[in-house]
Amino acid sequence: MRKFGVIAFVMFVALATAPGHAQRGGVSVFTATLAGENEVPLVSSPAQGTFSAEIDETAQEVHFELSYSGLTTAIRQAHIHIAQPFASGAIMVWLCETTLNPAPANVAADVPTCEQNTDADGTFSGSVSGTIKVADVGTGSAAQGVGTGEFAEFIAAIRGGNAYANVHTTQSQGGEIRGQLKPGDGPK
After folding, report:
1. DSSP string of 124-184?
2. Within 10 Å of residue 170's Cβ, how many Cβ atoms?
3. What's the number of CA atoms in the CB half-sphere (13 Å) around residue 34?
4. CB 112 within 8 A of CB 131
5. 80/169 Cα distance (integer angstroms)
6. pLDDT in tens, 95-122
7. Residue 144, by phi and psi: left (phi above 0), alpha (psi -120 to 50) or beta?
8. Which residues 6+ apart lie within 8 Å of 21 measured at CB?
9. Exposed (0-12), middle (13-18) or buried (19+): which is 84, by Cβ within 10 Å?
């Protein structure tokens, strides 16, 4: 009986102290690998991408990096949406914009332009980084419970596995590549 109590105590301590997300210096880190097969519905595309986010809840900011390559047509925009891996959802924040798809006026000042490089094989690539602030949250996701400025709800969606990053293109306007945000190591 004593052996059982010791094992139960050790398991309790291990579970109670296990982090629910990756952390570096008090900052939570989430990453995603973007691919066409992750889109809903699936997109047949050679493109790929990576996304990393460092959440600083004290400062109420998210610093992000997004890179993409092999996109079949020009980039239109990129976002973080709210939805489970098997569903599509509304835009919570804009990651980048273009003249084809500018960000809404109330967040446009904080949204960088999507980098567009035409590669030798005719595909498109680029990268973008920026900072998401409280005022940038809730662009179109109020019906799913994340309204304008609801930073805590935005972070809760990410922590709950209910957020994905994706890149929209001229051919795949609903998104050509997508990746669900998961706890990860992030940029070094």
Report:
1. EEEEEEEEEEGGG--SS-GGGT--TT-HHHHHHHHHTT-EEEEEEESS-TT-SEEEE-EE-
2. 16
3. 27
4. no
5. 15
6. 999 999 999 999 999 999 999 999 999 9
7. alpha
8. 28, 29, 30, 159, 183
9. middle
Torsion of CA 178, 184, 187, 188, to 10 degrees: -160
Beta bridge partners of 119: none
- Amino acid type, 53: A
Q: In 3D, which of 36, 31, 29, 30 has the Cα closest to residue 167?
A: 36
Q: Cα separation of 135 and 152, whole Å?
A: 12
Q: Which domains does the chain have, with CATH numbers?
A: 23-183 (2.60.40)
Q: Which DSSP symbol is given to 106?
A: T
Tokens 């094992």 appear where? 7
Question: pLDDT tens-digit profile of 42-82?
Answer: 999 999 999 999 999 999 999 999 999 999 999 999 999 99
Q: Going by C-beta distance under 8 Å and a sequence separation of 6 or more, which residues neighbour residue 1?
A: none
